[in-house]
C-alpha cells in the first residue's frame, strides 16, 4: 500500500522522483488554452510562468484524466513533472470538486507505477481536498499481482512495475487535526476498499465460502469485531433454505458470516447485507458461453459489506454496524437445486425456484430475514444481482431501491458525496404479480422486463415489518472489464464500499434521519 504524508514544503525543493501538478482548460476558450491549477504556482514559476505553454506544445489539452510528462526545470530536486488534466476550470469560484481531485490523483498515481516517491501539488483548499487526493492516490495505485510469476531478476519481485511506494501531498498541514484526520480516514477506507478488490480478484478455486469466512474471521480478530460463522450444519439446523439451496450443488459448503462492530456511544444500529456467491455458474440454469469468465466477482456485495464494517471499526464510528455475508457457490451437479424445486426460507416462506441463476436473491432473502430479527434502524443490502440493472444503467452506475423514498434519497446523496455513481429506481407494485406461484408463496422470477426491479420486489418480501431498507444492485460497476480510468482499476472495483462507510458516518452523527 502506498504511504501517504503531508508537507508544506515547496515543490522545487522536495526530494522525490516526480512532482504532480494539475492543469485545466478555461471554459469557453479556444481549443488548447490551458491554465495551471492552484497548488502548482511554484512549479509554474520555475518554468518562468510558461508551464501551460510548454504543455500545449507537447499536445496537452487539459482533458480529465490526461497525463503529460516532461523534464523538471533547472533547480528542481525531482527530475520529472507530471501534469494531469482536471477538465474544465470551474466557472464560479475556481474550486475543483472532490471527485475531480480524486480521479486526477488516481490517474497520476497509476501513471507513476514503478516510481518510489512522488509529490502531489494539486489544488488543496481544505482538509477535505487533501482527503480526496489521498484517497485517489491510494485507490489509483492499486495493483493485484498475487498470481503473477516472479520476475527472473534474482530478488523474487513480481513481474511488471510496482505501485507507487510513497506520496507526499503538498499544501497539507501535517500537524493540523483536520488534515491529519482526513488522511487517516482516506487511508483506512482505501485500504479496506483495496482489500475488497483483492477478494473480488481472487480466483474462485482459492476463494470459496469457507475461505472467505476465514478471511473475515482474521480481520475481525485484528480489529476487535465480533464474528459468528454458521456452517452447513448450523444453516440446516436454523432452516436457512435459501442459502443451502443455492449451495447444494457445490462441493464447497455455504456459510453465513455475521460481523458485529459495536460502539459504547452508539445510538443507532445499521445492518449491511452482502451477496457472496464466490462463483456463479448459473447452476442447473447454466450460463451460456461468454458469461462465466468473470463470475468470481459475484461476491462483490459481500466484499463491500466486509470492507465497510472493518472500515467503520478502524474509524471508531459511534454507530453499531452489523455485516451479514451470505456466502455460497452456485454449481450444477446431481445434488443441485433444480428449476421447479421449492425451498423453505429462513422466514418460513416458500419459494418456487424457476431459474437457478436467480440465486443471489435467495441467499439475500435468508440474510434479510435473519438481520430483521435484531430490529436495526436500517438495512442496506448490496449485490451484483441482475443483468437487467446493467442494461438500465450501464457499467458504471448502481441502482438504488428502497421501501422508503426519503431513505432512498439519503443513500443516493451519500453515494454522490463520495463519488460513486448511483441512481434511484422504483419498486412498482404491479410487477409483484409476475412472481405469483401456483405451488409456493412466491417464485424467484417474474416478468422479463424490469428484471432488476422484480428482484428488488422479491427482496422486499423478506424485510421485517417496519424496518427501513435499501437495496443496491451493483452488477454494473462491481467489476471493470475495460481499461482502468480515474482511480478505478481493471477487475474488481470495490463498488459501494465508500457509500456504506458514508452512511455509517452520517448515522453516527445523526445526519441520516
Automatic annotation (TrEMBL):
Binds 2 manganese ions per subunit. Signal peptide: none annotated. Presumably involved in the processing and regular turnover of intracellular proteins. Catalyzes the removal of unsubstituted N-terminal amino acids from various peptides. Residues 355-362 form the Cytosol aminopeptidase domain. It is found in: Cytoplasm. CDD domains: Peptidase_M17. SUPFAM superfamilies: Macro domain-like, Zn-dependent exopeptidases. It comes from Streptomyces dioscori. This is Probable cytosol aminopeptidase. The active site is at residues 287, 361. It is an enzyme of class 3 (hydrolase). Its main location: cytoplasm. Pfam families: Peptidase_M17, Peptidase_M17_N. Its EC number is 3.4.11.1, 3.4.11.10. Its cofactor is Mn(2+).
Amino acid at each position: 500500500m502506498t504511504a501517504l504524508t503531508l508537507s508544506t514544503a515547496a515543490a522545487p525543493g522536495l526530494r522525490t522522483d516526480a512532482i504532480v501538478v494539475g492543469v485545466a482548460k478555461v471554459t469557453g476558450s479556444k481549443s488548447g488554452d490551458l491554465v495551471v491549477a492552484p497548488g502548482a504556482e511554484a512549479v509554474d514559476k520555475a518554468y518562468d510562468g510558461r508551464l501551460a505553454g510548454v504543455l500545449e506544445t507537447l499536445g496537452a489539452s487539459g482533458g480529465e484524466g490526461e497525463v503529460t510528462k516532461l523534464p523538471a526545470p533547472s533547480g528542481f530536486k525531482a527530475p520529472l513533472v507530471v501534469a494531469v488534466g482536471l477538465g474544465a476550470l470551474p466557472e464560479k469560484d475556481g474550486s475543483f470538486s472532490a471527485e475531480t481531485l480524486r480521479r486526477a490523483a488516481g490517474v497520476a498515481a497509476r501513471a507513476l507505477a514503478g516510481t518510489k516517491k512522488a509529490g502531489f501539488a494539486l489544488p488543496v483548499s481544505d482538509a477535505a481536498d487533501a482527503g480526496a487526493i489521498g484517497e485517489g492516490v491510494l485507490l489509483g495505485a492499486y495493483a493485484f499481482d498475487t498470481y503473477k510469476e516472479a520476475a527472473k531478476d534474482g530478488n523474487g519481485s513480481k513481474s511488471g512495475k510496482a505501485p507507487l511506494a510513497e506520496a507526499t501531498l503538498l499544501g497539507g498541514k501535517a500537524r493540523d487535526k483536520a488534515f491529519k484526520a482526513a488522511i487517516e480516514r482516506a487511508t483506512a477506507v482505501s485500504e479496506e476498499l483495496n482489500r475488497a478488490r483483492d477478494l473480488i480478484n481472487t480466483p474462485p478455486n482459492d476463494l470459496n465460502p469457507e475461505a472467505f469466512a476465514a478471511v473475515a474471521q482474521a480481520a475481525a480478530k485484528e480489529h476487535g469485531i465480533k464474528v459468528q460463522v454458521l456452517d452447513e450444519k448450523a444453516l440446516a439446523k436454523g432452516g436457512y433454505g435459501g442459502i443451502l439451496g443455492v449451495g447444494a450443488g457445490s462441493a464447497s459448503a455455504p456459510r453465513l458470516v455475521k460481523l458485529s462492530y459495536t460502539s459504547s456511544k452508539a445510538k443507532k444500529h445499521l445492518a449491511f447485507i452482502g451477496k457472496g456467491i464466490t462463483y456463479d455458474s448459473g447452476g442447473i440454469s447454466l450460463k451460456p458461453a461468454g458469461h462465466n469468465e468473470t463470475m468470481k466477482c459475484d461476491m462483490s456485495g459481500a466484499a463491500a459489506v466486509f470492507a465497510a464494517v472493518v472500515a467503520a471499526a478502524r474509524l471508531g464510528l459511534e454507530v453499531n454496524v452489523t455485516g451479514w455475508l451470505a456466502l455460497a457457490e452456485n454449481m450444477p451437479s446431481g445434488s443441485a437445486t433444480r428449476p421447479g424445486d421449492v425451498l423453505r426460507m429462513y422466514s418460513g416462506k416458500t419459494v418456487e425456484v424457476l431459474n437457478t441463476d436467480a440465486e443471489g436473491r435467495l441467499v439475500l432473502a435468508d440474510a434479510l430475514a435473519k438481520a430483521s430479527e435484531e430490529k436495526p434502524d436500517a438495512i442496506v443490502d448490496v449485490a451484483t444481482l441482475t443483468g437487467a440493472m446493467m442494461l438500465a444503467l450501464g457499467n458504471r452506475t448502481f441502482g438504488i431501491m428502497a421501501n422508503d423514498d426519503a431513505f432512498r434519497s439519503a443513500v443516493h446523496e451519500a453515494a454522490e458525496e463520495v463519488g460513486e455513481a448511483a441512481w434511484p429506481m422504483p419498486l412498482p407494485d404491479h410487477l409483484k404479480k409476475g412472481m405469483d406461484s401456483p405451488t409456493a408463496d412466491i417464485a424467484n422470477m417474474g416478468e422479463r422486463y424490469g428484471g432488476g426491479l422484480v428482484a428488488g420486489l422479491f427482496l422486499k418480501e423478506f424485510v421485517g415489518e417496519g424496518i427501513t431498507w435499501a437495496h443496491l444492485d451493483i452488477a454494473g460497476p462491481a467489476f471493470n472489464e475495460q481499461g482502468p480510468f480515474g482511480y478505478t482499476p481493471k477487475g474488481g472495483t470495490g463498488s459501494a464500499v465508500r457509500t456504506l462507510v458514508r452512511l455509517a458516518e452520517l448515522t453516527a452523527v445523526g445526519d441520516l434521519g
